[in-house]
Amino acid sequence: MVFADANADGRRDAGEAGLAGVVVSDGTSVVTTDGAGEYTLAEVAAPHVFVVTPGDRRAVGGWYKAPAARVDFPLASAPLPTRWRFAHLSDPHVEAATAPRFRSALERARDGGAVLAIVSGDLVFDALRADAGTALARYAAYDGVAAASPLEVRPALGNHDVFGIDRRWSRVAAGDRGYGKALYVEKEGPRYFAFNRGQVHFLVLDTIGVNDTRYYGLLDDAQLEWIDRELSHVPAGTTVVTVGHIPLRSGSLALSYAAEGLARSLLNIGGRTSYPHVVRNADALVPRLKAYRWTLALQGHTHVAERLPAADGTSTRYHTAPAVVRLPQARSPSGFFVYQVDGPEVDDGELVLLDPPPQGAGE
User: Fold this and answer.
1) Which of 123, 128, 192, 228 makes a 20 to 30 Å CA pair with 95?
2) Which of 3.40.50.2300, 3.60.21.10, 3.40.50.970, 3.40.50.720 is the CATH number of 80-353?
3) Which residues on neighbouring strands pair with residue 297, listed in sequence order?
4) Interatomic CA distance for residues 208 and 192, integer angstroms
């Protein structure tokens, strides 16, 4: 059941009614609650069941849960004014040494009026090449900051959050616990999901493909099929904001392409040559979102602040947040974007710098 938790205590008390028309999913099936707030998901094999929170409510005790014979979602009232703000942070690369910087960024976002923080991947410093103990410690550092955040945090999976696949360095076997994306799912929840805030529908994507020891940009088939099912419950014309780590579109990557050289930059996967730092099938989203106002795609990965305007005849802007972490070799400023929402409209965002940019750097 999904019910209105009037006193936000996580329990269904007398008089707390079920909520009709709320979407619940296991990442494959997508259902809605009936008039009494009840739903059924049959034969769930996924590690989580999650609720797509309505725009004026928040989940009490978590928006995803492990499958069981009965899984209830208490939702407390959380209305927003017509105008409200959210922050887009990316690449905090948290470990013990960088956790205070991520904490400070969340506090800056709160001080700037944001009520929601979206973190578009690379939550941890690195799990690709890490052993199990190191990866777990880094996830614990991230989770400690996120749990104490002064505003709601919704994460997306990044390539550095994938555990152990660079086996030359990690010394992790493919069958070990948490290998690949499993550790992220265990610690942070579903690798793709959706939620509403105000009049905006957020679609959080897994843009990471894995080819043995390498990653590349991809929207996998299971996820695309789920997107079709999830969007069937979203009214046409709704404003949609997508969130993913590896960019759907980017211009700044031309610099890293030249620096890496062809041998490192290109992968041949399934007989198709791909540049791993952009999503190779990003166009698969275009027909799926045609009926909606897909006005903004939030991205990370490049550590460079970039705002690509909508191309002629389209409405989608592609905005890449800079990194929260400050790496010694970085030439781009560290920071994040804060966006103002006015009803269904999302502005172009304000860049908030976490420290002065290095000499010669620019957006």
Assistant:
1) 192
2) 3.60.21.10
3) 242, 318
4) 11
